[in-house]
Amino acid sequence: MSDLPRTSREIRLTALPERGLPRPEHFGLVQAPLPVPGEGEALVRNRLFHVPAALRTVIGGGLTDTPFPALFPGDTLFGAAVGEVVSAPAGSGLTSGELVSHWLGWREYAAVPVAGCTPLGDLLPDPAAHLAQGWTAYGALTRAAELRPGDTVLVTGGAGAVGSLAGQIARLLGAGRLVGSTGSPEKAERMVAELGYDAVLVRGAEPFAEQLAKAAPDGIDVLFDNVGGEQLRAAVAAARPGARFALVGALSGQLAAEGDGTAAPVEIDSFQLILKRIAVRGYSGLDHPDVLEEWNSRFGGWLRSGEISFPQVRIQGIERAPQALHEVFGGRHLGTVVVEL
């Protein structure tokens, strides 16, 4: 403990944009006193943290009925992190030097409630893999969409942290044809070459519904939707009778140039929902706590066998985190963006 620094750097929201998405200048790298753990807390030195697009939704407002608090100027950002235990209360079950996952990223050191620390063990071969968002994709495909062998599956936002694993998982669960969407031809090429997609639709290249009709001429059985908007509308039109839709994100609204990222309105043909008997379900992993353990077990096996990859981009240094978030908002990267400390 005597070798510890007196201060810890962290990323705080310093201002809200007057319009549009937050930019790097709306965040600051702040030197704060080293956290002092309270009763029932462990001191953790962070090694890695995830940079998610979903932060947009909590910056300056947030949504009701979610477990994540809104962020306002002066607040430190938060998110999934992997860190090393520096100290822990006696009897907590945590040991110094042990790697744990928790939700207080975006800072070098964190005082984390013991109940919020999950020891990593050796279930996954790479500590960074614990920041993968595949558990959301796995749960939505198995619980909400109930994917069946031979299904034609559409994954919207297929290059992001969730989507880059959703397509691979769908294939491993037996998808017959796999169609994805993304924002650039470069990422589309990589999704076919590296992630196993049969076809990838590029937003804005031509009307989305026309692209989908060409890529899945016989229609789709499953939608794994990260985006909403026109892509959801097109999926309804392309759905086969009895199709199952799992809605996990709404990037069309979250990352819109206007608005605050908390609404994603879309007009869809409800007659089609009725006539085709389409099942539409919103999915949250928090409703299925059993999924994470099941996912980690399968994920670890798939990683070791080479049946799945964990696409990731590592950004070195906490000072580069605001720029990394800006790039995530802009859809620059494929896979999970991780800051390494």
UniProtKB/TrEMBL annotation:
It holds the Pfam family ADH_N_2. Keywords: Oxidoreductase. It comes from the Bacteria. Residues 20-339 form the Enoyl reductase (ER) domain. This is NADP-dependent oxidoreductase.
